[in-house]
Amino acid sequence: MKRLAVLTIILLLTAGIAYAKDYEVKKKAGDYDVTVKIDKNPPVVGDNNITIDIKDASGKNVTNAAVRVEYSMPAMPGMPAMNYKTDTELKGKEYKGKMNLSMSGAWNIAVKITSGGKTTTVKFNVDAH
For a Cys staple, 62 with which of 30, 52, 54, 118, CB 3.0–4.6 Å? Predict the structure, then answer.
């Protein structure tokens, strides 16, 4: 009986680690409510999948925008600044893309949403491990 209890606790702890919540940022950008999710929390060096959900003022999903993710790391002694861009693709009601963070440390992320000739930006920072 004791062995079963220990095994159950180990399984629950393992499941909790295996299903850790995505890194998530919710921000307002102009008339939009934007939710950005990164599939790893914290983001890691290498590929990170990014999902962007955009809702207008009435709460409807925005599916007619061009969404680009720009991510950068500022210059440091002995290292130039790093700047990258990736376009996203609309899948269902969300925009999906992939960021490749080339090294650990602080990254600046800007999600640029262009619709109707107007661009709005959501900015946030992450620390890659």
Answer: 54
